Protein 1
Amino acid sequence: MQDVPRKRGVLHRHPRLRLGLLLSPPMLWLGVAYLTSLAVLLITAFWTTNTFTTEIERVWNLDNFRQLWNIDVYRTITIRTLWIAVLVTVVDALIAFPIAFFMAKVASRRWQRVLLIAVLMPLWASYLVKAYAWRAMFSGTGPLNWALDPIGLHLGYGLTATVITLAYLWLPYMILPMYAGLERVPDSVLEASADLGAKGGTTIRRVVLPILWPALFAGSIFTFSLTLGDYITVKIVGGTNQMIGNAVYDSALTGNNLPFAAALACVPVVIMLVYLAAVRRTGALDNL
Amino acid sequence: MRDGAVSPSIRLTDLAKSFGSVRAVDGVSLEIADGEFFSMLGPSGSGKTTVLRMIAGFEQPTAGSIELAGQSVTDLPPFARDVNTVFQDYALFPHMSVAQNVEYGLRVKKVKKAERRARAAEALETVRLSHLADRRPTQLSGGQRQRVALARALVNRPKVLLLDEPLGALDLKLRREMQIELKQIQRDVGITFVFVTHDQEEALTLSDRIAVFNDGRIEQVATPRELYQNPKSSFVAAFVGTSNMLTGPAARAVFGREGTLSIRPEKIHLGDVPDPGASTVTGTVREVVYLGSANHYVVDVDMPWAGDAPQLVVMRQNFHDSDDQLSRRGEKVRLAWLPEHVIELPGSSESTPIEETA
């Protein structure tokens, strides 16, 4: 009589065991696959490659980081990448806000769904296809230059094209958190602002934007980090320009210098950590 | 007082609003006097909130006009109207402190900082929340948020304060307290209050006058007493308070005449006959509902024919607390009432079950 219910209630009576069973698979994945690979990356960065044998020498040193700091090219590339990431984030924020606002506050339920699908749709298409589509857009005889030609402008492959293409690629990642953030603002809060005498612009400045900051930062984490890590778009539409990702790729494959590539890869990691620490203070991480 | 006539605080003329094919408000005309506590009462979907939102400027009327203090505001946006709203969900700004919330209206109107502070402090004093000025709205209870919303609206000293079911989210005890407080504040500030509610008791408690809404139209505008004692339609009689409404043969059997007739449960005497001129019927107690201070008795009235008997609900105060004083289920009782307490209502198209069975 006693035994049966005892056995059956094991999980019920031991909430810790229940939690353990729930969390052990993802923790294993996170611990082994994710953190270990990051740790290996970090460790490798402190080793060197023998330039003659191209064998990795497992001797602890800071040579890679010293080189990174001392060689101008890498500093230029890092600063360029940072700029591109900032510009992409700003462009995305400026484009995403009106779209998200329209979706969350103006459009009918039906239109909301249509627009949500429209925003998500580019994510279903291959990254490469989209990048090459933009390559065609920017080509000398492409539609963009055909349109710009009458006003005497020409937009070829280069950094501007890279920013535009990346901004296009990551736009959904900015719209979605903003849309979610605006959805959580009741219409009555906007009405209250108008009711208390604020015009549209004042309401956006004093009420909507302050409430939306966390969502904006959440979106910027995506646009910023995705840009920092990208190396394909710049190859396709960036002309001869390089970003950190290209340098990592070249060191690892062309240069066959994995430790230096690892050290280079630490740069965006550090930038992101600094950015996240700054963003954390705004409470944006509660919104992810 | 020029011309000897004062413009009403609010004048609505043939106001209508359609959402697609739905006529939410269907020709509402109304005058609300200055300093009046005016309630718009009705079931959900009756158009009362839409009328309020049109006065505030959140909805554009499909037809008709809105005047505030004699001036047409029909086409003005909300920020240009001298009215303020207390929202059902309070609509406090989550990123601002209580004091900043209250100051907001003055701030966007560019009132100087010192005056802003002083007036906000005064408004918070009115709603007894001065000690919570630095809190965030999320750190407040429902009743406190309600008061902040009230202070935020009152600080602008509007001509009219609109309240959209402001007490709906509060529990009963707090709601009763807030009702009394609201009435007091309204008397103190002397501003016209337009109060939307679906709670008839709340409307009766608070209002100088009540407009009963049904299906986008006003059924009756009257003082609470008038509304309760002389409902002008069967809808009003049924919606405001509890009514024993009978029509057709049932009405003739019980009240002695045809028509739609109604009597309030507390006007019916159980057992005793108050006056030699009183009407009486006999019946059987079907159900006794204990309400604490009173009991409701559902009585099947004895009829000369077989079939479903009309029912009367009788309310009786529990003067005595011993159970044996109460009539029990199945017991034969005598019901009596004074003829003047029977309310005659205009015949309605709504058919009652009794009509069908008779």
Note: The first strand of chain A starts at residue 48 and ends at 49.
Protein 2
Amino acid sequence: MGSIRFDKVDKVFGPNTGGVKVLDNINLEIGEREFVAIVGPSGCGKTTCLRMAAGFEAPSAGLVSVSGRPVTAPGPDRAVVFQQFALFPWKTVRQNIELGLRNKKLPTGERADLVAGALKLMNLEGHAEAFPHQLSGGMQQRVAIARAYVLDPEVLLMDEPFGALDAQTRVVMQEELVRLARVNPRTVLFITHAVEEAVYLADRVAVMTRRPCRIKEVLDIRKIRQAENWDKHARIEDVMDLESFVHLRTQIWKSLREEKVANVV
Amino acid sequence: MLGRRGWIGLGTIAALLVLWFVLTTATGWVSAARFPSPAEFWASLWQVSVRGYAGGQLLTHALHSLKLVAMGFAVAIITGVPLGLWMGWSRKAEAAINPVFLIIRPIPPLAWIPLAILWLGLGDAAKIMVIWFSAFVPSVINSFAGVRNIDRPLIEAARMLGTPHGRLVTEVIAPAASPMIFTGLRLSLQAAWTTLVAAELVGALVGIGFILNMAQQDLYPGMILVGMVVVGLLGWATTWLLGLAEKRALAWNVAARD
């Protein structure tokens, strides 16, 4: 299992044409099997952080490394779950999940077992031969998560994965993700603009400022979650009613709000 | 079987046939020297189908034209689609090839006929070359646009999954671009038929264009109309076949759009 490290990372878009600095001196370390969420106002560089960890973009300065190795290109050791699912519409659910395993050149029998396991994990049994367009948005995102999990990656990079889902489906998926994280903890970098989602899911929450974005503070959620025993509540709404949850949510909310006011003034 | 819109279309065709009969036969407003009557058309069709005209029967002419179109079209696909995909994928390839392409593209395919005849003579090879050139352009442009319009996350997902280069092309880029590729193929097929007739008008000893050419010299309006109608029907039939292939290949896409 891997770790992620952002070390004095800057990102400038269009450096040849004046340049817009979107990330300013980002320092963040995500330990093994730790779930870290980055929240921030939209348009801040939070997705850019994830894209650099994935290897889709390179930092302008500083270093992004995963498990101690500098990131140079995308690869199956860093599985990405995209906001718009990014499933291959001409492939069935099974073929979508299997592609990464074929790329790893695993033998057929082993692939079939792993795909079956991933389908079961995400409650997708019975949909293996369906095409993505035949599934609801929530189901499609389950496929995308299965496609990422089946790779057994060092780290999981989730870019507002529930942002395109309706409210009800979103809640179900959040609960599901918590279940997965408790059963089989992974190293996760999770991007969202929804404060409640971040507090509910993450071990730590990093709050980002507006452009040029810096990490303003990092809150330790895990300590409070364990102390207040959130996990005994199966339903998200029960957790969200707890005083400790409300307190954390308000704290982050205020932090983000100060940001906006400061910028307007 | 036939939908409401299908019946409307058939109605239009029937009305045109009636109008044709009225103008030429019933009233004689259009003289037979300018446009054939249905009876003359039928007699010409019978003549070329059974006894033959311009050195052969209709089937011989039609098959020959069909063969030229199929070969020119096939060569255009084999060369044009990969080139378009490559230009779409690689900015360097685009930078290298596009300027040449932009200059060659406005040259009408028919302008290549003299050169083609000079190089390859009056035989089939020159015609195939000209058909190829005309069908080549839409295939390249649409394949190119197909790649450029692929959703970026789809490519990123494939790369994140560690997809090797060859598989990226065959299993991601080509299928993602295929709706546009098929649009290009349909335009290419149309261009192929247009060019075929022109090429056969210039120099041929067999083919639909040759029928048209001979009928013009013979002042034979009935046979001219036969040639035109046969080209129309062949073009329609091949387009329909291509549509079937498209429906099969893009089942995932057709269903996704519904």
Note: Chain B has eleven helices and no strands.
Protein 3
Amino acid sequence: MSTPDENLFEEAFAEFAHTAELMVDPVDSAVIHGRVRRRRATKGALAAALAALIVAVPAAWWLQESNGDEVDPSPAEETTDETTSRETTPAEDGGAGSNSVPEGQETGLDQPVLPTFGDLVGAEIELPEFFPGEGSLNDICPTGPATISDAAGAGYGDGSVRLLKLVQTTLEEGGPVEAVALFGCAPGDGMLTQAVSVAGDGDGGWEVTEEIALGTLDSFPLIDIAPAAVTGVLLLVPEPHGTDHQGPLDYEIFRYRTGAELEDVTDSAYKWGIADLAVEVEKTDNGDGTWTAAVTITNTGDHESQGFALTACADAALTVEEVDGLPGCTEDYRVVEEYAALEAGESVTEEWTVDPAPFDEWSGDAQAGGAYLEVRVRTPMYGVDGFAFDYDGSNDYGNMSLIVDDVT
Amino acid sequence: MTPTRDSSAPPGEGSAAAQLLPMRASLEFDDFYAANVRSVTAQIYAYTGDRAEAEDLVAEAFCRALARWRKVREYENPTAWVRRVAWNLATSHLRRRSVVQRFLNRQRETHEQAPDGDRVDLQRALAGIGAHHRKAVILRYMAGLTVAEIAEQEGVAEATVRSWLTRGKAALAGRLTVQDDMEQR
């Protein structure tokens, strides 16, 4: 790939930006003021009408959840506006950084204060025990209070309580919108989870207002949550499995509503985001001392995936030209590319040029066992309104290696 | 991080001077709007390729800024906030539109108009590259953000942004070259 001259780019874009700024015709600021005034005036009326909308609007979703329709439209796009009272997702409102304003914390709103993801990370909250009635066993996942960590951080297996996901939904017909959090704690290899409803405690902190489900490793390994189509929260529960499990996992989906029995909606619930991303790496000798690594990620599942990241690491003996500076595989994986969703059957391929160092400069381990380039896909679940579940983790990984015969 | 419900009155509430605060804030918003709306709209236009759509999305972003202006104005960089909201809205919008577009593309042939100038060349070339790459290039060269600022806005590593920029620029250059060749023939 050739890279064009930087100055030419800057000049071309400066001219383009200037022309585009003259072309666009934004509305007068008075129009913005008017729209905001009207929204404020209708906010009360909208809140009163919410219960009716929850029942009436997402008809397609109701049909899907009740009739097993497999069309798979996205819940975030089709129903979130109707099933929650917020105007935007936290991400749309500028992310969870210091500049975001949690919905409901503005002056004059007589509603429960609902947290954003960023509000809960770092907060101290009294949570239900991960091992109910087991006394000191709970010390390995402290919950009284728990100091919440970010799910995206490293350090699994350290016993810290992490916020895996936060969604907004109504838990009973006609009820208020609530924030349902999925917390996890991994004292060892397995992840214990719990889903609870969280709201402001009126004193500047957060509190659990409803216990929804407790995930256990052996019988109910709750792994993900999503807003239900109409009312309630969906719980995704794969079959009990160990970390060494190979092949696809079976799973069930349950719907929780306040005061009702858990309902198995596996056959009828939407399955957007329940996918199987499979990675393959093919190496080709370029004949000039370099190699091409073709990394292909395919959604081999039946439903559209969520967006995902491709991570990579490489032995110090290998230079990957397009993604320079990869960490060693004994250290870490680095995100090298992020992708939007893949439809079922869709695939995406990256081609990288791998340039090995002279063999005598390789480490002893690499000389003996080969120099590896490894890739892995990761689907972050915490930023989406639907499920984000790859039911076959055994094919999320691929590698290519060069050995002595390849480079001498 | 703990939440606080902002129910306390601002300093001076109730005094005559305080009565002028909303008006002052309103004028301040108008200045903010005038200073930024064209550049942000131009960036979103370059990203979506649809002027009317870009104007609507940016108007929505500024509505959200005005609705919480008392907070937003206190931020270190209110422009970054509104730009991020506009970009997030545009990304969500494009994702929805791409689903429809994929369907339409299967249903009919598309007849694109020939470019009529450098600006259109660049615009068409932008439309032909990946969304991440397009976003990175626009933010870098139209919005003038640094790699670190783009990484912060998009919530990705700086290395990822550098990769997007390298690939985006190479893809753009390739497309502009192809268009030049076609026009010379």
Note: Chain B touches chain A through 67 residues (CB under 8 Å).
